[in-house]
Amino acid sequence: MCYFKNLIKVKFPLVILVMFFVFSNCESQKKLPKRPNVILIMADDIGFECLSVNGSTSYKTPVLDSLARTGVNFTRAISQPLCTPSRVKIMTGKRNYKNYEYFTYLNPDQKTFGNLFKENGYKTAIVGKWQLNGLQQKIDGYEDNTRPHHFGFDEYSLWQLTQLKKQGERFSNPLIEQNGKLLDRDPDAYGPDVVSNYAIDFIKRNKDNPFFIYYPMLLVHNPFVPTPDSKAWNSLETRVKPDNRFFIDMVAYMDKIIGNIVNELKVQGIAENTLVIFVGDNGTNLNIVSNTNNGPVKGAKGNTITHGNHVPMVASWPASVKKPKSYNGLINFSDFYATFAALLNVEKDNSDGISFKDVLMDEEELNRETATIYYDPMWGNNSGFRNVFSQTDRYKLYKSGEFYDMKYDLFEKKSLKDMELSESQLLIKEKLQKNLDQYPDLPKEKPILNIK
User: Fold this and answer.
1) pLDDT of residue 24
2) Is residue 364 predicted with pLDDT exceeding 90?
3) Is 441 helix (H, G, I), strand (E, B) or coil?
4) 32, part of any domain
5) pTM score above 0.85
């Protein structure tokens, strides 16, 4: 508050001068920081081990490394082990048992963070991979190309909105739907460039408005094929021929695309107050082995072991993050909706997450000690991994009663018995059990969709 004392005793010109400075100071104190632009980038099938800042020696990710070193590197982000369960959870902020109904489907009765930003005056766009209309099952409305608008996105440039994968791939000669129209096919076009260029154009057009971009990337999902930076791209024949060796090129191109977006923010003069978050949707493909400073890591997409759901996560917000850091608290995918609601100063609706806004604001941090995952993939090839578990950074307890020390048993080969546990371990197990008691058991039968 601002106070005036004994001003009547001061000569008039001096009073005017004092009042000018005092009121100016008051106004600066009342002025709220401008709402940030927000860009959420979610890579497809990339585990924690694939960023060089996280110890990878197989890949180079200089852009993400730089964002991590000047922003926040979240070292314990826990996703669902498979793509659609993660996408439904991150978009709605709800535990899977509440609203995940089918693989590749999000029920239109749900509210997403797209709706949240749009309701609060943001221009919104989604680019990249959709795969949420229930195309395979032909669920009511599966051919509805306005579904992204329904979920709060003003504009879109997407693969697999109303067209199945068999009708057109996402990389060379991509089948992209953009704002209600199918783009012309072009053998020389590269899907990740098409959608990211749209995002860059959206940034240019909305630099003077608060905006939200959700970019569920096309990279680095299989098929592992050449990128425009690969020598094999020069031939129409070789650019569509899959080979695991191209995974390295795809990781590099993913990083390059993120660099293009970050550079555009700088060109438009809005990088300072734009929050950019990068995260993976689940672990790396099962056929990929990555070398790290701690030894080789085999991808475990679909599996509930650590390598199936421990994903990279980096945040950059120069106007807010003044002290670069690594954050070791657990992050659950339901937290994103809650965080965005907190940034907008609105209620988080019925989301189940906890905001990590404090981490981004250099405020006092309350490290979450546990994360609980309800995982029923409803996907034929992964049906054996369906489970519910709660974990700390070291211990994991399943609803089935299996209890693991991931520090010494990363691949969960030997469940610990109560008689083997110390008093502190028993307390941890008891705490995890209380978390699990809040979750229902997996149903005995669920509709399963077999997809190759």
Assistant:
1) 43
2) no
3) coil
4) no
5) yes
> Do residues 105 and 94 touch, judged by C-beta distance below 8 A?
no
Q: How far apart are CA 300 and CA 305, in angstroms?
A: 7
| Distance between first and last Cα of the chain | 65
Name every residue whose Cβ is closer than 8 Å to that of residue 20 and which is 6 or more positions away in sequence: none
Output the average pLDDT for the chain: 91
pLDDT confidence of residue 447: 52
Q: Is residue 28 part of a domain?
A: no
Tally of structural domains, the chain: 1
- In angstroms, the Cα distances linking 211 to 67, 90, 121, 148, 348 are 20, 18, 8, 16, 19
The tokens for 43 are 């890579």
The answer as to whether 98 is a domain residue is yes
CB of 274 closer than 8 Å to CB of 263: no
Model pLDDT for residues 332-359, shown as the tens digit of each residue: 999 999 999 999 999 888 899 999 999 9
Alpha-carbon distance 231 to 226, whole Å? 8
Q: Which domain holds residue 359?
A: 37-363
Residue 224 lies in a domain: yes
Handedness of CA 424, 425, 426, 427 (dihedral sign): positive
Question: What phi, psi does 323 have (nearest 5°)?
Answer: -120, 95
3-class DSSP state for residue 277? Answer: strand
Q: Return the exposure string of 187-208: e unless at least 16 CB atoms fall within 10 Å of the residue's CB, then b.
A: eebbbbbbbbbbbbebbeebbe
Lowest pLDDT segment from 152-156, 193-197, 385-389: 385-389
CATH code (residue 176): 3.40.720.10
Position 5 pLDDT exceeds 70: no
Q: Is 40 strand, coil or helix? A: strand
Burial level of 14, CB count in 10 A (0-12/13-18/19+)?
exposed
Contact 388, 439 (CB under 8 A): yes
Judged against a pLDDT cut of 90, whether residue 4 lies above it is answered with no
Full strand arrangement of the beta sheet holding 395-398: 371-375, 387-391, 395-398, 403-405
User: Mean pLDDT over residues 78-83, rounded?
Assistant: 97
Contact 206, 123 (CB under 8 A): yes
Residue pLDDT, tens place only, 6-30: 433 444 444 344 344 444 444 433 3
